[in-house]
Amino acid sequence: MGISSVRLGLKAYTLGWKCAIPFLKTNSRLKDGWDQRTLSGGLPAPAHIWIQAASGGEAYLAWEILKHLTSPFSESLRVLVTTNTLQGYETLTRAADEINSRKNGLAVQPWYFPFDAPDIMDRTVSHVRPKVALILETEIWPGFLSACKKNEVKILLANGRMSTKSLAGYLTWPGMFRALAPDAIMAVSEADARRFGTLFGRKNVWVMPNIKFDRMADAAPMAHSNNPLKSLIPSDSSFVVFGSVRREEKTDVTHLAAGLMHERPASILGLFPRHMHHMKIWESAMNSAGLNWTLRSRLTGPATPGTVILWDAFGELVPAYGLAHAAFVGGSLAPLGGQNFLEPLTCGVTPVIGPHWTNFAWVGQGLFDAGLAVKTTDWTTAQNALISILDAPPSRQSIAKRAKAYIKDHTGGAQAVCKQVADCLNKD
User: Fold this and answer.
1) If residue 293 lies in a helix (H) or strand (E), which one and from where to where?
2) N or C: which end of the chain has fewer CB within 10 A?
3) Residue 361 carries which DSSP code?
4) Hey, what domains does the chain have and what are their CATH numbers?
5) Degrees to nearest 5, angle at CA 109 with 37 and 141
6) What is the pTM (predicted TM-score) of this model?
7) What's the rounded Cα separation, in Å, for the pair 233 and 228?
8) What is the per-residue pLDDT for 3?
């Protein structure tokens, strides 16, 4: 695709954004940070580095990178960190507060990622003037990439992941994306590297350790006395957590919940939807299965055995894993790629997942071979696995110790990214 064709494509892209933005204002999830997304409230401050983290998960990766960044200058290293979601913004705000309080030569500013309309992005990048744009996972925005190219900003895509579905979408306009290719791509697996190579060319693509291992490196089981949820779960009850379950697997998860409660009627089940705004869907599902349920927000004391707790509070999944006797991790009973099953492991709980875990292939088959996690074929086999764990629970400390050793062997991603960023800054 020639330069003129790319310009034509970006003009069409600009027109699409101009038509879309008035409708986007009616989206309740985009109202947060609207002034920053549209620049109607002003522009972010100039920065040496711009880090883009799509949502909450990527924001934690950005936080890990910020912990390892150091300034190569006599002045502070100014870092703009952006995200698309409220959860991501809240996470980045906490990260900025922590990093800035250390007074270690970094000045971090959180901001909502501006809408990718080329005129908005041109204005933002021209004002911020970053030397390096660090994109986490799979944030391939044409307006942002184009603005960075115009302003001679080095573009590094790190902790890169790309599904076959995403690749197929990008390949509908391969010339456009090839022209806007990042300067370097660090993928988390060979499979991801091949997909990025197919889209952008393999020359500047290589594999790195996933930063999510770094995040987990210092995790350890929380002492029961320190667990903020200890008053909600009776110590003599079997507590099972369904973590990050997705709407698309509702039927299977409901069967799993009903089957488990039938086999172990005195258990307490904590069901954590991946998306809190789908809570009504899970309420309806529990009613249809005839299960006794309550909302986490209604609990003022210990839950009654035989109850399903629909968790409508943010930030309590890891403490819940810390009390769980068994755990199922969602996004895995439907072809959704899975959710993070390292979290229960670091709490000393053997995670049970369904057959779909492509998003977490970077974790490695070795975890299953070592018996640290259990992969099942459907909700029935998942139920059997959970019951087996409840009947003969392994030592929490032993599981956590073995998991910690496995994770430690796979760390180093954040430092590898920081080295690449430093190289880009030093080449200026």
Assistant:
1) strand 293-295
2) C
3) G
4) 3-216+411-426 (3.40.50.11720), 224-408 (3.40.50.2000)
5) 45
6) 0.81
7) 11
8) 59
